[in-house]
Specification:
Strand content: 5-15%
Order of helices and strands: HHHEEHHHHHHEEHHHHHHEHEHHHH
Structural class: mainly alpha
Strand order of the largest sheet: 1-2
Number of helices: 20
Protein name: O-antigen ligase domain-containing protein
Keywords: Membrane, Transmembrane, Transmembrane helix
Number of strands: 6
Shape: globular
Organism: Candidatus Kerfeldbacteria bacterium CG_4_10_14_0_8_um_filter_42_10
Helix content: 55-70%
Length: 516
Amino acid sequence: MLKLKLFGKLFFYAVLAIAVVEAFSYLAYFYPILNTIGFFLILLVALIFSLWKLEYGLFLILAELIIGSKGYLFSYEFSEISISIRLGLYLVVLGVWLIKLIKNKNIKFPLLGAYSLLFVFLAWGILRGVLNHNSFDNIFFDFNGWLFFGLVFAFVEALNSWEKAQKAFQVILAAALAMILKTVFILFIFSHQIDFLLNSLYRWVRLTGVGEITKMPNNFYRVFFQSHIFAIIIFFFLIVLIINVKKKEFAKRDYYLYWLVGLLSALVIFVSYSRSLWLGGLAGLLALYYGIFFVLKLSMKRVFVVSTGLLFSFAAVYLLTLAIIKFPWPSPSQFTGGLIEERTTDVTEEAGATSRFKLLTPLADKIKENVIIGSGFGTTITYQTDDPRFLSTHPDGKYTAYAFEWGYLDIWVKLGLAGLLVYLFLIYKIFRRGWIIFARFRENSIIQAIILGSLIGLFAIVIINFTTPYLNHPLGIGYLLLVTAILNMLEKNPSEINQLNEITSSLKNSESNKQQ
């Protein structure tokens, strides 16, 4: 059986490095000079790593996506423009890849045609925005997230072997664990009102764009990071591994770590108090059961065991959340009421939700102006908002924006129906290629689990994008590129992976014979 090593040395080194980076970023809140030092130091490390091995530059990008949310853990102020560490890493890795491209001009991969077609429409979106006289600043910042697609070639080239893919998984898992622990830490601090940390921690989280900390009417503190989307991805990735791979094939420590990280991922999804993430989690569960019944074709007995395990896990998540907020030290939480009712009742009356619904009509009107070809990047819409974050600067409630919560409608406005369909075609091609490659590894439960788990995570993002834009954001695009690269690696190297599988099985049989 092919071995999957997710908790190797690189995982622990990555956790340690991320802890240092997070601490340095927090200190930079008090000493701004550290922000500049950290920015250039990280870029220097990224440059050295990328020149040495391109995949290590990508590992830094993947880790930053997960711990950074909006990408501003560090930034550099230049001529009234704030350059994020994410943009800096993007330019470094892309630049190194372009240098390496001079030596190796082979950039072909199976999904190149679908990606190229999307690139044509992205270029059209920019041109259309210019022709419509949209503000240059709006065009740039609106298109900014889409720039991440430029890394698709670097992803495909760098993650071209099983060994490199395993290292990528370790870094992703390390960053996800760091993000999870940070969420739990913040929840504990605010639930128990630990005064000396409250103000600085809140302002640091907000200024770096990592997330939001909001006090709910029931005195529960909602901790939401945009990058919590990766908690959903990690949850389904690990759950499918646990379901599809026999327990004896795991190292004992790893098996329990899978359960622990999976449980903590579910905890983060829960305490995010994000209806969009909950919707994505529900969609992922439906996709999981589809996979269990029609793809993995588990017996009813096995389905019952899996369902029981999931129910106990969700109950444990609820109890663990209560334990964190009700822990008696250092001071008891003022939390009252239930954890779930707050986000499942009065959905249409909450300020954020009502603002989203009020945006629908202006969005529809703007789409009607250019249904097929779109209005281009930087297109703005003015709508009525009840969101208190905007009312302080817009007392009349009239708010003008170029980025919109309804993900697919946002794409439709900018790229038209034609551009939206091209993007959906790319996503369809990724799913289709995933199923084709899945069929080639019928005898390899680990590879099957990786493919199925990855596609379930992608399906969850596709559903979440209806109400929260991720597919036009580096977080969603980055995951799309990762799945593309992993599938490309598996398709190009089936013999290498099967050979590894055979070698491992032979060694296992040899050890068994010696024991006999």
